[in-house]
């Protein structure tokens, strides 16, 4: 009796796997690779986080002022929760006080370091240039100082800086007044007038930025030193001539 279990196919043909119509069998699909892990965030130290928050606060206070700045926005820009900001500064007033204190010290240090000459006119030039340098290089800081401070704030502001600078100028003018036979009691008045003139001009120059800084300083000193009745037609800085 004949075995028809292979329906006439040879054993080798019967063992082959059937191939679907349309071509060769596709290779088995490779398993999908796992999704790439997002880069882990670098955790800041407490000191680094504090510096980040101060920098963000400085920028916001410069852009919007104290009243229009919120803790929510400070936290949002820093990508932290509001309690983190409160933990470091106790609130918006605390952050503002730290920012202003730093700017006051930075401006005073810059002006004090600049006052190295012996001649009063050169000292005036150096003070004017130092203030304009600060305005140019630390624009956000200057904007923070010249904005109105919150009523409840006991921190320093731009006026307190100007008073400190005026006191330094007063000592210089007092010695010069004695040498020239003027009343040294008037040195305080003149120091306030000189520093106020430079500061107010600096606020104006912050927005227009022309003429260039050295030219502004030269004309300030021209007015302060020579007076309206003895203005030079083309003033220049003595210190600039030596460079």
Alpha-beta classification: mainly alpha
CA-based shape? elongated
**At the third CATH level, what is the topology name of the domain at 101-241?**
Tetracycline Repressor, domain 2
Helical segment count = 11
Mean pLDDT: 81
Low-confidence stretches: none
What is the class of the domain at 101-241 in the CATH system? Mainly Alpha
**Helix and strand pattern:** HHHHHHHHHHH
Your description of this structure?
The structure is a single chain. The chain has 243 residues and is mainly alpha-helical. It has a domain at 101-241: Tetracycline Repressor, domain 2 (Orthogonal Bundle). It is built from eleven helices and no strands. It has helices at residues 11-15, 46-64, 71-78, 82-89, 92-114, 120-137, 139-146, 158-180, 187-208, 213-226, 238-241. Helix 5 (92-114) packs antiparallel against helix 6. It starts with 10 loop residues before the first helix and ends with a helix. The mean pLDDT is 81.
Characteristic key phrases:
243 residues, mainly alpha, TetR family transcriptional regulator
């Amino acid at each position: 009796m004949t075995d028809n279990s292979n329906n006439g196919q040879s054993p080798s043909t019967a063992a082959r796997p059937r191939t679907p119509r349309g071509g060769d069998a596709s290779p088995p699909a490779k398993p999908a690779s796992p999704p790439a892990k997002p880069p882990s965030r670098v955790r800041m130290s407490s000191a680094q986080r504090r510096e980040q928050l101060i920098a963000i606060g400085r920028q916001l206070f410069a852009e919007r002022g104290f009243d229009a700045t919120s803790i929510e926005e400070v936290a949002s820009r820093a990508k932290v929760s509001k309690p983190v900001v409160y933990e470091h500064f106790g609130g918006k007033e605390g952050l503002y006080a730290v920012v202003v204190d730093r700017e006051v010290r930075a401006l005073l240090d810059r002006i004090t370091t600049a006052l190295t000459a012996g001649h009063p006119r050169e000292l005036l030039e150096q003070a004017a240039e130092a203030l304009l340098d600060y305005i140019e290089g630390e624009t956000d800081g200057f904007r923070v100082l010249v904005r109105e401070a919150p009523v409840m704030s006991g921190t320093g502001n731009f006026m307190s800086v100007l008073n400190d600078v005026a006191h330094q100028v007063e000592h210089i003018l007092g010695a010069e007044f004695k040498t020239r036979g003027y009343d040294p009691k008037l040195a305080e008045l003149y120091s306030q007038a000189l520093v106020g003139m430079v500061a107010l001009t600096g606020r104006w120059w912050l927005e227009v930025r022309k003429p260039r800084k050295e030219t502004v300083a030269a004309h300030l000193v021209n007015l302060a030193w020579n007076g309206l009745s003895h203005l030079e037609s083309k003033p220049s800085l003595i210190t600039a001539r030596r460079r």
